[in-house]
Amino acid sequence: xxxxxxxxTGFILAKFLLQFSLISADYDLxxxxxxxxxxxxxxxxxxxxxxxxxxxxxxxxQFLGNGVFWVKFFPALFGALTxxxxxxxxxxxxxxxxxxxLGATCVLFSVLLRxxxxxxxxxxxxxSWTTFYFMLIKYINTKKPKWLFIAAVVxxxxxxxxxxxxxxxxxxxxxxxxxxHRKVFAKKEFYFSVLxxxxxxxxxxxxxxxxDFPVIHHLKELAATQLVNVSRVGFFKDQLLYFIxxxxxxxxxxxxxxxxxxxxxxxxxxxxxxxxxMIFAYLKAKSYYAxxxxxxxxxxxxxxxxxxxxxxxxxxxxxxxxxxPVLFFIPMYNVLFPNKSPEYIIKNAKTYKDLDLLRWExxxxxxxxxxxxxxxxxxxxxxxxxxxxxxxxNLDHTLILCDNYGEAGAINYYTKNKNVKATSFNADYINWFxxxxxxxxxxxxxxxxxxxxxxxxxxxxxxxxxxAGKRINQFAREQEISIYVLRGAKVDLTKRIKDExxxxxxxxx
Length: 509
Prior knowledge:
This protein has three domains: 3-332, no CATH class; 342-373, no CATH class; 378-508, no CATH class. It is built from 22 helices and five strands. It has helices at residues 3-19, 31-38, 53-63, 68-92, 97-108, 112-115, 121-142, 146-161, 166-177, 188-210, 214-225, 232-242, 247-259, 268-282, 294-308, 318-332, 342-347, 349-354, 370-373, 378-390, 405-414, 493-508; strands at residues 398-402, 422-424, 441-446, 462-472, 480-489. The chain is globular and about 85 Å long.
């Protein structure tokens, strides 16, 4: 085993150890994770929330036992693979051991530690961007068409994970036109690779067509409810903070792409950065959408710095360059990760507020960071529901209806009762109703601020209605959730459910 292999193995092990040490036992899974895990039970070529790739990973997790360890393992794995790709990119750029260590350190001690905590598409999205750019480096160096085809496969899989990777191409296209690499558009292999990518994503595109393009609705809703709270100044501010420990390395990479003779052939990457950030800023995108851009620029910066810091007194700056990402990570350790209890965070709220970590997607400040609040109270909710269900007969004829996908997904994940299958008119659950049996009873999982006037269930439709329990957690995003039991339906609820589904879909799409 070579020295390089030993060092790389050390970084990979450190990545996994860090990821599994950054979540306190005070927290459950995050609401999105429950939805993604439940998709394994409803495999399809698309979902209202995400493309299908995440459901495939969920199926693997289910096969492995569906435990929390495996839920956290895969985003950590994608983060570790991102380190590996950056390592390989540095090798391709002829970087020495110092460059490899610097690049791996910059990626390890970065915002990816936060991103890789959660089982969401973001971790694989960043890996996809980084790998695609690496394939571009390989093509520039060799001119071999196989790298175009591999890049096409990488893009397709990335697209089936998160549509965000389309912005990579939007930024890269004008960048290629500005450089000598524009001649790729005259090569037939380029168009065959494009065709390959289209064929691979075609099943998902057909799904979008058959479902009236829910991605368009999602983007419109996102723009109206969340992106409206995003400022362009805040977007660029966040870009500086995400990889603050590696900022010098990234800036060095951008400088080298413009002025370093050895990187002249890679200048397309400089313009790709410029155009992609301009597009994101123009659209007022969420700042983390651009995270996939940066790892490959760490590769360029690491190689450039290794070249200029290897002679004379400058070589003594090498340890400082490696130490910088670690030094910036240390103060962030206590605030960026759910490794502190909710009580601790509230007691030290000023620190979190000063870093703007208490501002949610609604643009308002709250007691806890949004992701942290979204990781509380779920197991308790499922436990209370199980207790209520234990005293009810005929669960096979009972509809468990939740206000949102977080409640439904958490109940389905944590329940100890195999007959419990919660659903909702929210997100993907609207397609997952089981209407093959007559519904006699309904369990309603409800937030107090629910103002939906067109609910399926109404008190006159049942023989009896009572409040069976409440889940109250002052730290959770949904602080109070009530559980009602509605017994003895007087009408056929199946038709009402179908009508409600049609109405909800019409309102959404």
